[in-house]
Structure formats: structure tokens, C-alpha cells
Design brief:
Elements: H1 3-12, E1 18-21, H2 26-37, E2 41-45, H3 60-74, E3 79-85, E4 88-95, E5 103-104, E6 107-112, E7 115-118, H4 124-131, H5 150-160, H6 173-179, E8 183-184, E9 187-188, H7 190-196, E10 209-214, E11 220-226, H8 230-244, E12 247-250, H9 261-265, E13 268-271, H10 275-288, E14 298-302, E15 306-312, H11 336-344, H12 354-364, E16 371-375, E17 378-384, H13 390-395, H14 400-412, H15 417-424, H16 428-440, E18 444-447, E19 454-457
Helix pairs in contact: 8-10, 10-12, 15-16
């Protein structure tokens, strides 16, 4: 590594692939294990957490000791180099990503952001399988063929005909599953059971969707557990969306003119949210969730003014929330066999296009941009019916007076300075200052002049 590269690392600070250590300690070996189990990385020993170069005594015997400890404790051979930075010697340890899991004292570590964390016992299976290039849906087991639902297989054949023209209605089930890599050396994969099984939850308990209709966080109107294979789960989720949401009808026609008789027959359904966008979100959850997590299920919560779609598993390394909004963007398939079948069925148009399609559909309907959240061990997509919810207004930094005023405008259409004073108890000047902040944030717009001055909702979230 060149000196300029080391200087740049020091200036850039710690991250997923960079760690500073003021001195050699046991934590150096833990971090080296984490780098090997994740994407690899560089340890700078002799640099403190704040990026200050404090230096080390790096004689040949010390370097040999460090190298032997890495080899003996981790069974890896990283690159060790000494560099002089600000007249101080530091040790640069470059660790490559390992093809096999690397432990330290019987424990396994990984990098999460700029931290080193121990891998929980229930997640070790995922680490071992991922390191060997095997995905959850490709693992085979002693699953009898009679667990496959023939009706679902035939449904798939009908749906996939445009993309799999060589597959015929009388295709033997074993032959089709073999072509889809769901039957390997005579054994069914987990993916085959989840996609086409009669009762996948008998094998994999939490491969289900928990869906409910809520008035508040604690007031539950309806509560459903959706089970069966992924085809059945998608169908049932969409049926419940139609039950939970409101729909209105629009009849095409030019502004100010009555529609013709044919147009009147072609009324258009307008749901609270585009059903196609909700279907995309559900499909993303079903095929991209982390099935290695055996304790959690996909959760969908429908409120009066928002919808949450939550699934186990954060975004794969290298993909950010902002990437999801770009078209096109890279696609990292956690469960490639599941994704392949949904693609052949026509439920996925292009790899990596689902999230941008969701944004486009919501924009076309005049809805706020949905929110993507990737947190530890989970991914969440939130649809908003209006940008003016209490939660979002508070997230914008509005005080309680301003939140109450915006909700008043939402209900009554407008607000005046006088009404704001009544609601808030502020003076004329205080009300004017609060209203100015709301205008600057785009939450309210000022209309009229003099005594007719009033304020209406702005364009937040459009």
C-alpha cells in the first residue's frame, strides 16, 4: 500500500472496511476476524479512534510476534506493512474477505458499519452457507415430492408461458422443477417447498405474513396470519388490501364534458394507494426477505393514513436506501431461485426495477414518496396517504403548536393568523413567526392580502 493511500485512510476515518487501533490488543484479532467474514478491510494500528497518529514500537521481533498471533489465532495470512505518518510508525494490516468463516477463540465476528459485532449463534448457519456460495433457497433436503401442490405448478406454467414458451401444460412436475434448479440430484430444495409446497410452514414455521388493519398502534380492527406457498400468500395479501383500503371511481372524459356511453362503462378504480405498488412491495418482501432468520415473519400493517410493509433482513452490503431510488440500480438477490420463478411468472419486470416502479406509481397518483428504511436485521417500506401526518410533521422538527395548526388546516382547508392565535395562545407576532417557519418548510402557503390573508397546505412530499 502506498503512503498516500495510508494518509487518505487516516483522513477518511473509520468505516465498514477501515478500523483504527491505538495499540495492539485482543480487539485487533476480533476486528480481523470480522473483516475476513465480511468484505475484508484495513486495520491501522497506532492510530486512535479520533484519527490521531500515536505510533508504535515496530521492531522486527514485534512484527513477527503480531504476524504469528494472526496466523495462530485466526488461521489467515493478512498483509502486514509498516508506514511512517507524521513521523510516527504505524502498522497497516490488510485482511481479505475469506471464502470460509473465520473465528477467534471460538467466536465469529462481522462488520456492521464502523463497528465489530459478534455473530449470534442462530445466524452462524447463514454465515457458513453464504461463505460457501449457497443460498437459503438452494439448500436441498429429504422433502417428498408429494408435498408439491400440482395446482400451483400448473398456475405457474400458465403465467410463465410468455417467458418460458418451451414449457407445456403437460410438463411433468419433476421435469419442470429440475429445469428451474429446484430439484437437484433427485432432492427438492427449500425454494421448491416455499414456492410450490402444499404446507411450507410445516417445515419452515415463520415463512408467513402477519397482516392487520389498525386504527391506532394498539387498536386492531383485523388480524390475519397468511400461510401457504408464496403464490397463495401473494394472492391472500392482495385480497386483504382490497378489503382494508378505500376505492373511488373516475370516469374518463374531457374537462367540462359528460363522458360518452363507452367511456362511462370504462370507469377507473382509484385506491388509497396503487394496488400495483402494494403488490411490488409485497413481492419484494416475499422474495428478498432473510429466510435464515427463523424467528420473525413478514409484517404488513394498514392504518387509516399509512401502510407498513416490514420484512426480516437489512439491505445487502453495497446497496443503500438511496440506491433503491435510482433507475436502474444494482440488484443483489438474496434468494435467486425465488426471484427467478417470480420473474418467469411475469411478476418481476426487470432486476432492480421494483422500487423505482413503486415510486413512479405513487407519484402518478399524487401521493407522497414512500419511505425506505434499512435497519439492523430488517427492511421497511412505508406508504403515506398524506404528507401531513402527525408523525411526519414531528420528524420535520415542528413544535406541538405547529403540528396542531397543520392538522387544523388539513381538516378545515385553511387557517388565519387570528385562528392560529386562538389555537396556540400566542401573540400576533408569535403566530406570525410560527407561520413563517411553516411557509419556509413548504408545509403552508400564504394566500390573499391584508384582512383576507390565510394559509393553506403546501406541497410537502409531492
Amino acid at each position: 500500500m502506498m503512503v498516500s493511500d495510508v494518509d487518505e485512510l487516516v483522513q477518511s476515518g473509520e468505516g465498514e472496511t477501515t478500523e483504527f487501533k491505538a495499540q495492539w490488543a485482543e480487539s485487533v484479532l476480533e476486528t480481523a476476524s470480522a473483516f475476513a467474514n465480511t468484505r475484508g478491510g484495513t486495520l491501522l494500528v497506532g492510530v486512535d479512534d479520533e484519527g490521531r497518529v500515536v505510533g508504535l514500537d515496530l521492531s522486527e521481533s514485534v512484527l513477527r510476534t503480531f504476524s504469528n498471533r494472526l496466523a495462530d489465532s485466526l488461521r489467515i495470512q493478512p498483509s502486514l506493512e509498516t508506514h511512517t505518518v507524521d513521523d510516527e510508525q504505524i502498522l497497516v494490516i490488510e485482511v481479505a474477505s475469506s471464502r470460509i468463516p473465520v473465528s477467534y477463540k471460538g467466536r465469529y465476528y462481522k462488520r456492521v458499519g464502523n463497528t465489530t459485532r459478534e455473530i449470534a449463534p442462530e445466524a452462524l448457519g447463514r454465515l457458513f452457507i453464504e461463505k460457501w456460495g449457497v443460498t437459503w433457497d438452494s439448500v436441498t433436503g429429504d422433502y417428498p415430492l408429494d408435498q408439491i401442490d400440482a395446482g400451483t405448478v400448473r398456475q405457474f406454467i400458465r403465467l410463465s408461458r410468455p417467458r418460458l414458451p418451451y414449457v407445456t401444460e403437460d410438463e411433468p412436475i419433476e421435469s419442470l422443477l429440475h429445469k428451474l434448479d429446484l430439484l437437484v440430484e433427485g432432492k427438492l430444495t427449500r425454494g421448491a417447498i416455499l414456492l410450490f409446497g402444499k404446507e411450507p410452514q410445516r417445515r419452515f414455521l415463520m415463512t408467513q405474513v402477519h397482516m392487520g388493519r389498525f386504527k391506532t398502534a394498539t387498536t386492531i380492527v383485523d388480524d390475519k396470519l397468511i400461510r401457504g406457498n408464496l403464490f397463495r400468500q401473494l394472492e391472500q395479501v392482495m385480497q386483504l388490501f382490497r378489503q382494508y383500503l378505500q376505492v373511488r371511481y373516475e370516469i374518463p372524459g374531457e374537462m367540462g364534458q359528460a363522458p360518452g356511453p363507452l367511456e362511462a362503462l370504462q370507469r377507473r378504480e382509484i385506491w388509497d394507494y396503487p394496488l400495483e405498488a402494494l403488490r411490488e412491495a409485497t413481492i419484494n418482501a416475499l422474495i428478498h426477505r432473510d429466510y435464515f432468520d427463523p424467528h420473525r415473519e413478514i409484517t404488513i400493517r394498514v392504518y387509516d393514513d399509512r401502510v407498513y410493509v416490514w420484512s426480516p433482513g437489512e439491505l445487502p452490503p453495497g446497496i443503500t436506501v438511496e440506491d433503491l431510488k435510482k433507475s436502474p440500480h444494482d440488484s443483489s438477490l438474496r434468494n435467486p431461485l425465488l426471484a427467478q420463478v417470480f420473474y418467469f411468472a411475469g411478476w418481476i419486470e426487470r432486476w432492480g426495477s421494483g422500487t423505482t416502479r413503486i415510486l413512479e406509481l405513487c407519484h402518478q397518483q399524487g401521493l407522497p414518496e414512500p419511505e425506505f428504511r434499512s435497519e439492523k436485521d430488517r427492511f421497511e417500506l412505508v406508504f403515506y396517504q398524506s404528507p401531513y401526518t402527525e408523525e411526519r410533521l414531528r420528524e420535520m422538527g415542528l413544535n406541538e403548536r405547529q403540528v396542531r395548526a397543520v392538522l387544523w388546516v388539513k381538516e378545515h382547508g385553511r387557517i388565519t393568523n387570528r385562528k392560529y392565535r386562538e389555537l396556540s395562545g400566542l401573540s400576533d407576532e408569535g403566530a406570525r413567526q410560527d407561520l413563517t417557519v411553516l411557509i419556509e418548510k413548504g408545509v403552508l402557503q400564504r394566500k390573499g392580502k391584508g384582512r383576507s390573508t390565510h394559509y393553506i397546505l403546501g406541497k410537502v412530499g409531492d
